[in-house]
Structure formats: structure tokens, C-alpha cells
Amino acid sequence: ENIFDRSRMAPKTPIKNEPVDLSKQKGCTPERNPITPVKLTDRPQPDPWTPTANLKILVSAASPDMRDREKKKELFRPIENSEQSDTPDSLQYDIVDDSTVDEFEKQRPSRKQKSLGLLCQKFLARYPSYPLSTEKTTISLDEVASILGVERRRIYDIVNVLESLHLVSRVAKNQYCWHGRHNLSQTLKTLQEAGELQYGELMTFFQQKEQDLEYRFGERKKETIPDTQDRPLLDFSEADCTSASANSRKDKSLRIMSQKFVMLFLVSKTKIVTLDIAAKILIEETQDTVDHSKFKTKVRRLYDIANVLTSLGLIKKVHVTEERGRKPAFKWIGPVEFPGKTDEPRGHSPTSDPLPQTQRGVCAPYQICPTGKQRFTRHASFNSAQPCEGTRRKVSSEPNSPRQERQDEYHSKMINLAAVCRQKIEEDTRNPSMASPPSLLALPGDSDFCVNPLPQTVFPVVQTDVPNLSLLNGVSSQALHPSMPAASKTENGKPTLLPSQPFLCFPSSPLFMLCSSLQENNSRDTLLTTGEVGSRSAEAQAAVPPAACQKRSSHKCMSPSAPADEEPAAKKQTVEHSDVPLSLVVPKKPFESPKAESTPGSGCTSAVHLEDFHLDLASPAAPEAADKESTKPLDSREQEKWSQNKEPDEPSAGKEHISKENANQPFLPQYLYVQPTAGLSSFNFLFSANQASGAVSLAASQLPSLSVPCVVVPSAALASFPVICSPTVTSSLSPVPDGSFTATAPMNFSVSGLASTTPIFIGTTAVVTPKVSPTPLMDPQQPAHPALHLSPVLARSCSAVKLDSPVCVGHPVTLLKLQQPSSAPLTPKSIRPARHEAFFKTPGSLGDPIAWKKNEGNQTRNASSVQRRLEISSTSPD
DNA sequence: CGATCCCGCCACATT
DNA sequence: AATGTGGCGGGATCG
């Protein structure tokens, strides 16, 4: 069997080679039809020369034999393959393997031969790492399974993790589409960003702690348990985004685990993650229950994932000897930095020019679908193939939908993860219960393509237009430079963060990207240097070479004091704070604003959240507010705990401390305030600094997608008025009619290209557009529903504005031109209170998260997404 | 004996 | 109901 594969595949090492193959893809490109899944019946791949068919047959015939043999006796023989095959090819084949991959000894007959890792290699060998954009390769699970001689179940294991990295996507039942590694770097980048938000602290914490102290997961959790309840909410909220359907079971899916696992690597300084730590982190909520069995299961899954990742050349197995002893671990050997796309050949210089060149070529015409759902815009085939709407719906049920969902899920997941992490962190810190709002992440996957098409996308605005712009934080930078490979956070160029300032003022900039540092901790924050902010243009960021990143990775053990090359500033900060890496020391202050705080999960912004905020502000605006909020969440006790924790941590921290110092910073601006610019005159935007309320996240690099809970406030009122949140995020969620926004729900929108001048407002429909009634339904309506109001100008300037691209697909996010004041109508007052709460409120307050989480019962699964949504919605006051 | 992880049952999801 | 997916964990194998 192998032989066959190989022959086709060509070089085995998928990684290296680029587009080697040929094989079947061509057959597959039936782009035009949206998919009606032809289903297996005929494989779309008509391989002309169809080696496959033959192969299949052979394989099918052979494989069984082989297996049997192996099982029976062959354990020993190293060469089985050759024997079996007898064919000359086999030899080559074997050789090839060795040369290319070899981590495994493939020779081992028995079990090893069947290993998932090897299987995955075979699988990967069949497809080109960098397929031509034009062709689509479809993968038939059945076919592959037969060819590789394994049960389909195993293929799922592989495909699921590949899907998590966007190397493939599900097209239809039994069919997956091979994308190759083109977007891998993008995906990784996104994961990294997301991971930092979510896991940055955690990882640091774990790594440090464990080594130094033992980190007792259980204990903490228990303690925190009450708090933990909140989590669920978060999760839900996230989930919402995804389409309603399919969450349940899939939530846990290997796919997500895989992403999380990858995130851990990307976040880890050392780039080494031990299985047990990963398992602990990934277990998430449910932890309180005794895990042992759970832990075991988790570990098993991690092995599965690790095998695939290993085959992809992203990680390798290593052993970490810690105090405790020697533990199995995996080291990330994949790209560390994602300046654009690492893998991609074409890359644009990381520096300032983001988009332009590459993208276009690559991308098919960028489509903007009203629905905005498709994430994979990139694939031209997809886009083109699918008619935006009508088809889409149909499709929804079909192949497409799954995809979308998945992506959605993905997003949601990400968010969830973040939430979880936060909570954990919080727990660790012992913050009072807080629900952290889900941070958002944009998913990248597609983004690159999407972005590409938009040349102008770059936000000149920021740079040019708003020279003065005071703030930018990492986010801004990110946002601004979608394409920027940007050194990701680490670089120096980052915006500064002013802890004290509560708001960010944008003088006139039409557009804001708010992105707070969502990543609370992440390196970004660290990056931020205070001074730089305003000035630093995207360029600066761009400037940062990828190399820096590497460094980071390289020096694993840094004393806290020593800033990494990359992030000197950040580190420094961290250091200071770092004493207590996680701990936030915040003076407690009575916090008036959001009552939410009082409320269990929601309101409270935990220290963590605050951290997230770090906004980089050029101007110190309202430190006060920030302080308040920030402080408030923290309870004295919590603080204490923190302190406690800290101490132990400190020492350890030095080692692997990730730059999360951010977390430390207690004060963050709660909101970003945007002054009304000409365009916006009427509106003020507030973005909550808090994660919960409004974490803004930028899409990973390229796409500037933001998920932000936005608040639009009348300028005048601003002071008085807190905010209104856009529910958008939840769109997918049960649509909560206007009033109830899930507090947490962040809006996501990505604006791929914004003209610098044109101001864009993004809000949920409910909020903004008066007319829009809250649509109760998610999916179907969404497409239609979401009205985008783009000013013509915008439209032009930004050829592509994608809504919701990544995250919230269907949701009715409306882009409004600022000009349209109509939205204003919201009576802020009335709304305000409720929303306000909602805004702050964390989902935690809602249903009993625990219950569902815990019960693994089937029921829960089913209910999960939906219920969650409902719950959330219900909670919303309005 | 602990680390790995194959295998495939079977629940859940989708057709 | 049939079939696709994929969670899950027993228990075999490896080291």
C-alpha cells in the first residue's frame, strides 16, 4: 500500500516539498457546483489516470493480508512492507520514508506500523503541501481509508486535527478538501494570538509553577469552583457564534483539543509542552471532578493529536526532566513566527506592506457575501462555487454548512478556551468570580485570502490619517496591519500601553480598531512601550522581523529580568510586575460602574481581564475609570491569594515566563473612547477594555477582524452613558433581541480594508440599526438579515469588507456608516441600564454552567449549544 | 511498570 | 433507519 501512496505522493515529506503532487487533485475541482455533494458515489476525482483506483483495489486486497500477517507473525520483520509488496516500488518507498520522516521507525511491523503517526504520514504524502490554489483536492474518506488500509475511524482522527489547522476542511459528507499548508502560518498565528490570550498566563503559570511548585490543579479548582461556574457562560457565548447547529458533541472534539494543544506550544516560551500539563489545561472546566480517568483519556487523545502534529513536522517528542522526573513532552519544531505566512513562499515582506501583492494573485476574487459567513473565502473555488445566498442556505445543510459551522465552532472554541483559561487563571489568582468575556479571535484561516484581495486594506488611516492617534496598542497595530506578519506581539514596535489611561482617544481617526490587547497578557502588551504608541505606525510593527520571534522561542529560560530580545520593553514591564506574574495587584476599589461585577461571572473583570485590556494609549485618558473597574474586581482576598501565588511563582517565573506581564498591570482602561470624528460625530464608541465587556480582538494578522463588544455612545452622553453593547457576537446565539446582549458577546467584524478616512461603525444590528429587529434566528436570517450599511465610499475604498468573517458569521452585524445617525436612536437611556448590565455581566451568572459541563451525559451534549444560547439570552435583561 | 496508543464499541449527528 | 462522525477507554504493546 505504501508504495502506491508514495508513488503518487511523491516526496514524502510533505513539509518540504511544495507542490509536488499531482495526483488527484485535478479531478476534483468542481468548483462551480457548490457542492452538492455528490457524495461518495462518484468521487469527484475522476482520476484520469486513476492510479487510485488501482491502488485502492490493490490496497484493499493487500492491506488485509498485510495486516494479518503482521499481526500474526511478522512482528519482527522490519521489512514487511517490502515483502508484502514484493513490488520493487516498495523499496523505494521504504527508503523514502526513512529519509524523509523518520521519526518513527517504521520498520516495526506490528503496532508501530499501524501507528497513527505513520498513517498520517501516508496520508499527508498523498497531497501536496502547497497545492495550487486553483485546484482543489478533495479527499474522500472512504477512499483514503481503503487506500491506506485502515478503518475510517482512523482517518477521522487525522482529518480532525488537520482540519483544526485548516489544512483541510470538510466539504461534505465523507469529503474533505485539501488546502495544504498555504495557510498554515496564518492559522498558527491566529492560534498563537488566541492562545496567548487564553493560555498565555496559564501556560506560564503552569510551567513555572509546576516546576517550582507543584501546581495542584485540583485544589485550585476546587477552591475556585464556585467561580468556575461562570465559565460556562463564557463558553456558551462563544459557542454562539458558531452556528447553532452542531456544537454539541463536537465541542470537545479532537479538533478543538488539537487547536488548544497547538496554542499551548505557541504560547509556551520553551515551546515544549508536557503532556500532563497540556492535559490539565485542556481538561478545562470539568476538572473539579476527579480526573484521573479523565486525565487519562485526555492524554490518550493528546497522543493522537501529537502523532498527527508530529507527522506534520510541527512537533517532536522529547522528554522533559523536571524536578519531578522525566516527563513525556513534545517540542514545537514548527514555525515560531508568523510573519505573514511562514510557510508560504510568497510572503510579503513582513514589514509594512502587507497585503498587496501576494494576495491578489493568490486569492480568487474576494467575495463579499452578504452572509459573510464563509470563512474560507480564500478558496476561490468555494467562493465562486457557492452562490452566496440561495445556495448557501441549501448548502448549509450540506457540505458547506458543516464547514461554516466548524469554523464557527472553531471561533467559538477559541473563545471558549480563552474564557476557560482566564478563569483558570483567575482561579489561580483567586479572583472573585468573574466571567471573562470571551475574547475573540478571529480566525484566520481564510483570512489570508480574504485579506489579500484588498490591497488597500492596509489601514493607512492609522498611520497617515491619524498621526496623532494616541493609542494603539498592539491591537491597533495588529488591526491595522492585517497582513502584517508582524512580528506578532513581541516586537518592539508595539504600541505602548498606558495603564493609567482609561480611554483611548482617537482624535479623528475614522476608524478604530479596537483591539485591545485582548490578549491580555500576551506579549503584545509587553511589547507595548509606552511612548511609542501614537507614533508607531503599522510600519514599525511591520518592521519587526520574524526573527525576533524566534529568539523568543530560543531563549526559554530567561530570567525574568532579562527581557527577551524581542520584547525588551515588555519584559521589563513584566519583570516589574512580574514578580507576580499572574498576580494582579490591584487596589480594590469600589467599583461602581458595572454592577455586573457584583454579579458573578460577568461583571467582574478579574484582574485578568483587566490585563487584557492593556490598551496602549497614547493619551492617558481616564485612568480613573480604569482603576476603578480594575480594582474593583479584585478582592482583597483575591489579591492576597495572588500574592501568595505569586511568591512561589516568581522564582519560577523567571524561567519560562511568557510575556504576560500584562496581566500584571492592574489598571487598564476600561473603555476605549473614540472621539467623534467627523464621520462619527454622533457616535462615540466605547470599547470596553475588559475582556468581558469588550475585549476587542483583532483578527490575527491579516484580517483585521475585530470582535469587540462595542458600545456606542452618544458623544455627549458619553460620560454619563456607559455603553451599549453590541450583541453581535452572539449572533449566532439565540438572537437576543436588542436588549439582551449577551454581555459578553463581543462583536466580531472584520474589516478587511477600510479606507482610512471612512469611518466605519460596526455594531450589531440591534444596536445600531434601529430597524433591525433582533432576529431571533440565527442562521437563516443572518444572511439576509445582516444588513451592512456601507457607505458607498467605503464600499469602494474598501473593496472588501468582510463582516463577521471569521467569527460571527451570520450574525447580523451591521456596518454602519457613521454617517447614518439613525442608529443613534437607540434610546440610550432605556437601554442603557439593561445593556449595561448585560454588557458587564458575564454569562456565568446565567445558567448553571456546571451542570452541563459536568455532565457528560449525552444530554448535555445535545443541549449544550442551544441551551447555552438560550440561557444566555434569557439572562440578558432586556 | 509506566508510556503509548490501537482498536473498535457505541453514542450522537446527519441523511 | 441508515449512515456518517467521533468520544472514549479497554487493554495490547512498547521501552
Question: Mind explaining what this structure looks like?
Answer:
There is one protein chain. This protein is mainly alpha-helical. It has a domain at 116-214 and 249-332. It is 44% helix and 7% strand. It has 38 helices and 14 strands. A 3-stranded antiparallel sheet has the order 1-3-2. The chain is globular and about 80 Å long. Residues 1-108, 209-247 and 341-878 have low confidence and may be disordered. The protein binds a DNA duplex (15 and 15 nucleotides) through residues 39, 75, 108, 110-112, 114-116, 141, 151-154, 156-157, 160, 173-174, 245-246, 248-250, 252-254, 275, 293, 296-297, 299-301, 303-304, 307, 328, 397, 402, 856, 858, 861-862. Residues 81-90, 349-360, 857-878 have a biased composition (Polar residues). InterPro entries: E2F, E2F_WHTH_DNA-bd_dom, WH-like_DNA-bd_sf, WH_DNA-bd_sf. One of its GO terms (cellular component) is RNA polymerase II transcription regulator complex. Residues 538-548 have a biased composition (Low complexity).
* Overall pLDDT metric: 43
Number of helices: 38
Query: Strand fraction band?
Result: 5-15%
Number of strands: 14
Shape designation:
globular
Question: Largest beta sheet: what is the strand line-up?
Answer: 1-3-2
Helix percent reads 40-55%
Q: How far apart are the termini?
A: 62 Å
Descriptive terms for the model:
878 residues, 3-stranded antiparallel sheet, 38 helices, 14 strands, globular, disordered N terminus, cell cycle, nucleus
